[in-house]
Amino acid sequence: MPHGNGPTLGGAVSRVGEEVSAYSNRSAAHNINIVAAWEPGETQPERHLEWVRGLWAAMRPHGTGVYVNFLSDEPQEQVEAAYGREKYQRLVALKNKYDPTNLFRMNQNIMPAA
């Protein structure tokens, strides 16, 4: 993988059917991860968030979705959107079966059905 160009997809990723696993957007050519960071005590963190949000908005029309592990503190609807409705419902069914108390929740969580 060329350094600095981001993950280039294709190959094995694109040879697996979209419905086979929870991994989504298999037709995407690249993943882009936009990250902002600042020093502790920064008095204007909003300036960093502003450029990230601006770049995200500019790239959004060219994207096919979002990689769930790149999500951070987005609302639950974004986690569902990352998987798509059908996959998310399959994951909820698995969560209900294997983790109905939501013990494993410290990630981009799949909420068990109520």
Strand content: under 5%
Element string (H = helix, E = strand): HHHH
- Nearest-angstrom radius of gyration? 17 Å
**Total of helices:** 4
Helix content: 25-40%
Question: Taking all residues together, what is the mean pLDDT?
Answer: 86
Distance from first to last alpha carbon? 43 Å
The major β-sheet equals: none
Uncertain parts: none
Shape: flat
Overall strand count: 0
- Give the structural class: mainly alpha
Write a concise keyword list for the protein shown above.
single chain; 114 residues; mainly alpha; 4 helices; flat
What does this structure look like?
The protein is mainly α. It has four helices and no strands. The longest helix has 14 residues, at 46-59. The N and C termini lie far apart (43 Å).
Any chance you could write out the topology, listing elements then pairs?
Layout (H helix, E strand, L loop, with lengths): L11 H4 L30 H14 L16 H8 L1 H14 L16
Brief rundown of the structure:
The chain is mainly α and 114 residues long. It has helices at 12-15, 46-59, 76-83, 85-98. The chain has 4 helices and no strands.
